[in-house]
Amino acid sequence: MFVEAGRLLADPSNGVVQRGKTLVIRGNQVVEVRDGFVGDPAQGQVIDLRTAFVLPGLIDSHVHLTGQQNPNSRLEEVTLSDADQAMVGARYARRTLMAGFTTVADLGAGNQAIFALRNAVRNGDVPGPRIIAAGSSVSIHGGHGDINGYRDDVMHLLSSESICSGADNCMRAVRTQVRAGADIIKITATGGVLSNTAAGLGQQFSDPELTAIVDSAHRMGRQVTAHAHGVDGINAFLRAGGDSIEHGTYLDDQSIRLFKANGAWLVPTLLAGDFVARIASGPNNFFTPAQTAKALEAGPKMLDMARRAHEGGVKIAFGTDSGVSAHGDNAQEFALLVRAGLTPLEAIQAATVGAAEHLRISSEAGKIAPGMPADIVAVSGDPLTDVTELERMKFVMKGGAVYRAD
Fold first, then answer.
1. Could you tell me which residue ranges the Amidohydrolase-related domain spans (predicted)?
2. CA 138 from centre of chain
3. pLDDT at residue 240 greater than cutoff 80
4. What does DSSP assign to residue 90?
């Protein structure tokens, strides 16, 4: 197969846009990049992207494929089975892939549903992005990530094995998730906007619990990422050796120093902040009172947070928290990152080479090069001039298979 690319950003790390290139694809891999439009229909299919801007498949470092916020979300918690959630996830996985995201990290879903979906995509049974799956979040009893706001007997039924209290019990929770199949460990280091409890957005795990989680995960070869809004939880997790922060709403100068000292990554999820603030302040608000108060508090602060982190030299990986906002709208995060001070190229780097480095998959994703999987997307215009071009995806290939060709 040959892909003739008019403009090609093969390696976003250097920002070089090449013109008039042909990608030679054999099986699921790129095997060669040739000068000129030299596709040979006698040797394989020729895909004409001569007028397009071609770049690597995009990476979203924070999604929740098995659901999506809606007025019935609380009811769905107690009516949808794991199998139902996997089927819902299949719908959203396809939608995400069609938006140009060929790799995602799913950071919080029922184990059976998300691991089944991950495996089905890997086996070619379901169209979707490559999924790096955390499964159930490691969380404290009663905190963000646990079940809140239902009858006590219902909450006992729905609470996960990954809920813990005390350092030893939290070590057990991490090991339980690894045994269940987690690729990465996701924890909730602070309160969260959408947990139905008036527990604020500050630190929820104790320092000894955080240390136990990070140490036990690292010993089992897993990185640890933390949902964290409050600065106390952000800094405590980074001091414990955590690998990345999701959200980071109230980070401060000390946080920035800790990020840089640890080589940790920030995943700002600006789209989630924008979405919850719009819902909570709008006429059709479907959040509970506890959720509404936290959405109005945290959402508007996230753009400034990302601006300060970027100016401070923190490494930023692209992630949306889609499932809070709508799946398929993931590329709207790019414009928000630019509003926060990133250049369009820096925003694209965050969703390609940066996210690949963050997720430790640089040999599998993030650039177009011989030996890499053929994950290739294209848009009509130049996203380095107008980053919103990435919201209008025209072509999607994953692993050498074409899923979209408008």
1. 53-400
2. 17
3. yes
4. H
Angle at 158 between CA 156 and CA 161, to 5 degrees: 85
Q: Is the CATH code 3.20.20.140 the one for domain 58-359? A: yes
pLDDT digits (tens, 9 = 90+) for 134-168: 999 999 988 787 676 667 777 666 677 899 999 99
Tell me if the domain spanning 2-57+366-405 has CATH number 2.30.40.10: yes
The tokens describing 322, both together, are 């889609």
The span from the first CA to the last CA of the chain, in angstroms, equals 18
Candidates 183, 110, 96; CA nearest to 145 is 110
* Beta strands at 58-63 and 101-106: parallel, antiparallel or unpaired: parallel
Name the residue type at position 204.
Q
The residues pairing with 106 across neighbouring beta strands, listed in sequence order, are 63, 133
CA distances from 321 to 48, 172, 262, 306 (A): 34, 27, 24, 15
User: Which residues lie below 8 Å from residue 75, measured CB to CB, with a gap of 6+?
Assistant: none
- Residue spans of the domains in the chain: they are 2-57+366-405, 58-359
